[in-house]
Description:
The complex is a heterodimer of chains A (about 250) and B (about 210). By secondary structure, chain A is an alpha/beta fold. Chain A is built from eight helices and nine strands. Chain A has a six-stranded mixed beta sheet, with helices on both faces. Chain A is globular. Chains A and B meet through strand 5 of A and helix 6 and helix 7 of B.
Amino acid sequence: MNNLLIDIKSKTYPSAGRVKKVCAIENLRFSPVRGEFLCLLGPSGCGKTTLLHILAGLDKDFQGNIEWSNHKQPDPRIGYVFQQPRLLPWRTVRENIELVLPPNHSSESIQTLLTILGLDETQYTFPQRLSLGMCRRVAIARAFAIEPDLLLMDEPFVSLDAPTARRARNLLIDVWSQRPHTVIFVTHDLREAIMLADRLLFLSASPSTVISDIQVSIPRNERKDEERVEQFRNQLLHAHPETADLL
Amino acid sequence: MMVFIAEIHSGQLPYNLGVTLIRVATSFLLAMTLGSTFGILLGRDQSLDKFFDNWLIIFLNIPALVTIILCYVWFGLVESAAIFAVVVNKLPNVVVTLREGTRVLDRDLIEMAESYQFNKTKTLCHVIWPQLYPFVIAASRTGLALIWKIVLVVELLGRSNGMGYQLHLFFQLFDVASILAYTVAFIGVIQLIESLILKPMDRHASRWRR
């Protein structure tokens, strides 16, 4: 059932000027199950973004393997929601989404996505005229539009106010459950992770390795209940004291 | 004003203006294409940039008159020498501007394009070009102004037609009215280029800004 095996033996950044050589990742091994929502948690600067860059194929300078098993297509499609929205400011919202698709895409699928994410009225606006929350939603729409086999999300809701973030999380789960695929979601926020994930992976400070691997046992329909999430969080911190220092 | 109309009627002014305009256009296009290519290359490749940096400074600062005279001496009083002299004068400017433009290209957006597997043309059209566009416009504006002036000097020194040659003639005759008439035509053309070409390009480039 596993379709992705991530095995990074080491990733180092070479020394530059006065900055010494940094070993960002060491012996990091895990394997998301197909269709699983996986949250990566860890202290800041522990190499989470580096890991996503490697997975997205943006960084090829590392030792190790990223292996896709029983994959039919030659190239797995990867959607990446960056920490910043990274939209092209000179293209409208709709053009930004259309650009990542092949030329013969259907305009209906874009329309559906735009409607779900509440971007219907702003689709012909340029990104600089939108709020950050809106731009983040566009970035998410863009990642979903390519119907990815693997969706990478790098703290996509950071610096959003609480209600907006909550709405964005609910939207994310809605869209994801319509077409489940593997998601690797990086966050600092344990509550957010418990609300979203099937499985939590705790990474150590750099050079990062996996410290604990925890399944979230709350059924999906009970996750909007904040007490339930809080309860699970306390249990988790109690049962795995090593994770408490990381966050 | 009377002189201006008379000059137009005689056909002298339109002819000379036309000749000058063709020279301006040719050297402008040459300088822009060559300069952009070089500039982008230098912006991307550090070792190349280090090698050419000093040369660039030298060429930026050689007086226009020196290159013009040298070109005429070396290549003879021919049209191609004239155009070449103008291009050599303008080229370093374009290179420097476009090099700056290439250096400040947004890495984040290029990474985005890479992760979504944009092909080369797509990346160029939608990610790179819109970022270079303002620099190209800046180079065009300063370039046009510089090229006008240099073309006139080139014509004055070694051509037998064009506005520069005419102005030289009028200078020898102390014909101030005719000189002013040519200046008026000159200003008119510049205004036309600015409002019909550069301004709309500018508006198009900044329509997405807040």
